[in-house]
């Protein structure tokens, strides 16, 4: 999710520089809504590797008259696609060597501090585009906005300033301890906030437990909302508290202030909140970073990078962000 959202500054720049261009965006079906209503007006193609072969996708793409083909993913599947679909392909540097050295040798040899959304512009070097310094952006359709409003009304949220919590993460080492989320929710409600706990269906039980700590002034989505409706809830939030996850980037793309909790990953990787009001909480530890994307267990067994970020520090950051 986050990768898709962070490509949107490039979409905006291409549309501004080439207003008459036909722009086609290829992504998985679950992420299509993130760009379907983008102001750049793109055509969205989807590919589900569980139901379609790469050869079939390549045949679809070969039938279209592309003048430029940008690989903004840089993984094995897209490298194979570049072989199957001849054309004017361009990619970008993922700084793999610098990332490996920082993770495994704890030496910083990054040649620059360019955020990932601006690294994507390397793939568009033939299109005469530059970053405009603005955040990512995600369009929200009227139906999704109505769904979000109905969910907030159903759960009695929004009468007080709204804070959203995004406790889930694909990798365990990126997750702040559940007890801390519960403590945070309890304190936010006591301080006069309503709390929306945003999770997918895979994190439903944890989300329900966090919301329960806030009593009737907190509720968990539990995967009931689509991405655009979730974006609408984030847009209505004064602050979003999140780990290093896609929902953090979604919050920045709709204008919610962010308090971000970073554990195993670091700024050099390029995925800190992009060009938006944000506070990043992180611990200075010799073992950071321990991986590029997080993992199932802390390599040293202590998980201090997130365990030592205490709820009091997050509460203070939320208070500062809403002041």
Characterise this structure:
- The protein has about 325 residues and is an alpha/beta fold.
- The chain has 2 domains: about 1-125, Glycogen Phosphorylase B (Rossmann fold, 3-Layer(aba) Sandwich); about 145-320, Rossmann fold (3-Layer(aba) Sandwich).
- About 35% of the residues lie in helices and about 10% in strands.
- It contains 14 helices and 10 strands.
- It has helices at about 1-5, 10-15, 35, 55-60, 75-85, 95-105, 115-120, 140-155, 180-190, 205-215, 225-235, 245-255, 305, 310-320; strands at about 25, 45, 70, 90, 160-165, 195, 220, 240-245, 255-260, 280.
- It has a 6-stranded parallel beta sheet with strand order 7-6-5-8-9-10, with helices on both faces. A two-stranded parallel ribbon has the order 1-2.
- Helix 3 (about 35) links the parallel strand 1 (about 25) and strand 2.
- The longest helix has 13 residues, at about 140-155.
- The two termini are about 30 Å apart.
- About 40% of the residues are buried.
- The mean pLDDT is about 95.
């Amino acid at each position: 999710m986050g990768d898709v959202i962070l490509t949107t500054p490039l979409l905006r720049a291409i549309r501004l520089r080439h207003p008459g261009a036909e722009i086609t965006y290829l992504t998985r079906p679950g992420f299509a809504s993130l760009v379907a209503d983008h102001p750049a007006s793109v055509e969205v193609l989807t590919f589900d590797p569980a139901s379609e072969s790469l050869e079939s996708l390549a045949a679809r793409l070969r039938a279209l008259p592309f003048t430029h083909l940008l690989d903004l993913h840089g993984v094995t599947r897209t490298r194979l696609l570049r072989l199957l679909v001849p054309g004017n392909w361009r990619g970008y540097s993922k700084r793999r060597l610098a990332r490996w050295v920082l993770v495994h040798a704890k030496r910083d040899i990054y040649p620059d501090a360019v955020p990932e959304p601006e690294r994507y512009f390397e793939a568009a070097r033939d299109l005469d585009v530059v970053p405009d310094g603005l955040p990512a952006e995600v369009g929200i359709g009227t139906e999704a906005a109505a769904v979000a409003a109905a969910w907030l009304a159903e759960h009695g949220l929004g009468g007080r300033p709204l804070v959203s919590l995004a406790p889930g993460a694909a990798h365990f080492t990126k997750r702040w301890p559940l007890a801390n989320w519960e403590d945070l929710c309890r304190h936010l409600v006591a301080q006069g906030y309503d709390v929306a706990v945003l999770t997918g269906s895979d994190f439903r039980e944890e989300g329900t437990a966090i919301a329960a700590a806030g009593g009737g002034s907190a509720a968990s989505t539990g995967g009931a909302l689509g991405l655009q409706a979730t974006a609408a809830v984030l847009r209505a939030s004064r602050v979003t508290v999140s780990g290093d996850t896609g929902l953090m980037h979604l919050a920045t793309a709709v204008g919610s202030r962010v308090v971000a909790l970073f554990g195993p990953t670091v700024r050099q990787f390029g995925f800190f909140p992009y060009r938006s009001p944000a506070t990043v909480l992180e611990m200075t530890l010799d073992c950071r970073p321990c991986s590029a994307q997080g993992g199932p267990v802390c390599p040293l067994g202590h998980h201090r990078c997130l365990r030592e970020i205490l709820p009091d520090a997050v509460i203070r950051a939320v208070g500062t962000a809403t002041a």
